[in-house]
Q: What sequence folds into this?
């Protein structure tokens, strides 16, 4: 076989410099959104048992975390709340003095340059752990929307730059968009959890947010992992209802869905690199089975390659340090 009989693709891999020249996909610190858990109480820095390096923070110690985030150059965070008390309608989710609202006010006062995204859901605040109002064991859709609107408006009043509703009730984007507009917040974007599967990868998050359902599961509102076309319908509905970003959650097992959504909608696509994906890597790295840095960077690059513009990840602080090393 002569040289003319085949292509020499290896020419473009022959040195680090050439490989860098032709690299198609890049990961930047601006792509990353870091989750923060704020918890009611004092002098709290609780490491989540199943998520090494991730903590619940009381407000009096929150600046320890914020200072590190800002110093690293992370520009965007998403805030989750861990309340002291819960009830059947998640009252503290939409209370003006709720833990998320207090946390957002403190963050914006200390570091106004941070883009603060508020997770808008009820599950962390309800005593039953579901994402809506319950009657006779059924999660009521339309009654839940009214409370989600109240939650979103209260979060924006506290200073949230972006609202990220994660509840998967039908019509939640339309209801929240209308509620924000009526409250005068026409310019606040909605980062919709447009495609959220009933995944087995969420376990460690429920450890962090204390949000496990107390009965049943969430399969009547989160999506069946077997379905692809359903994801396209969900994303299309949210676009039509006024979403400004579309989240696909989880990310790693749903790279095909990220690509599908990206190809159909000219909106920023957010991959949620969820808690189970984080914990598995941390556990394997702790046992010496993998090289954590190379595995994490490869994972996140796969999400960018699939079409994600942004990545919501618990690895954000580690990744920024690795990128800075380069």
A:
């Amino acid at each position: 076989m002569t040289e003319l009989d085949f292509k020499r693709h290896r020419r473009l891999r022959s040195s680090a410099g050439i490989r860098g020249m032709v690299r198609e996909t890049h990961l930047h610190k601006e792509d990353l959104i870091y989750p923060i858990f704020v918890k009611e109480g004092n002098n709290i820095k609780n490491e989540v048992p199943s998520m090494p390096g991730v903590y619940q923070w009381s407000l009096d110690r929150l600046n320890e975390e914020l200072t590190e985030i800002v110093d690293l150059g992370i520009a965007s965070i998403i805030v989750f709340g861990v309340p002291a008390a819960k009830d059947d309608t998640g009252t503290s989710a939409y209370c003006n003095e709720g833990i998320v609202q207090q946390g957002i006010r403190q963050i914006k006062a200390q570091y106004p340059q941070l883009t603060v995204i508020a997770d808008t859901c009820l599950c962390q605040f309800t005593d039953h752990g579901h994402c809506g109002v319950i009657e006779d064991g059924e999660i009521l859709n339309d009654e839940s929307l009214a409370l989600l609107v109240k939650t979103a408006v209260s979060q924006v009043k506290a200073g949230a730059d972006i609202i990220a509703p994660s509840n998967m009730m039908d019509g939640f984007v339309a209801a929240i968009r209308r509620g924000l507009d009526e409250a005068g917040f026409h310019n606040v974007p909605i980062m919709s959890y447009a495609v959220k599967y009933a995944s087995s990868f969420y376990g460690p998050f429920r450890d962090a947010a204390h949000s496990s359902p107390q009965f049943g599961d969430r399969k009547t509102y989160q999506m069946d992992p077997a379905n692809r076309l359903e994801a396209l319908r969900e994303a299309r509905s949210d676009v039509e209802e006024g979403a400004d970003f579309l989240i696909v959650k989880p990310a790693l097992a749903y790279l095909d869905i990220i690509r599908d959504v990206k190809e159909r909608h000219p909106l920023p696509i957010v991959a949620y690199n969820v808690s189970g994906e984080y914990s598995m890597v941390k556990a394997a790295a702790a046992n010496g089975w993998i090289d954590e840095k190379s595995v994490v960077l490869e994972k996140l690059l796969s999400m960018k390659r699939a079409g994600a513009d942004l990545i919501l990840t618990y690895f954000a602080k580690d990744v920024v340090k690795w990128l800075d090393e380069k």
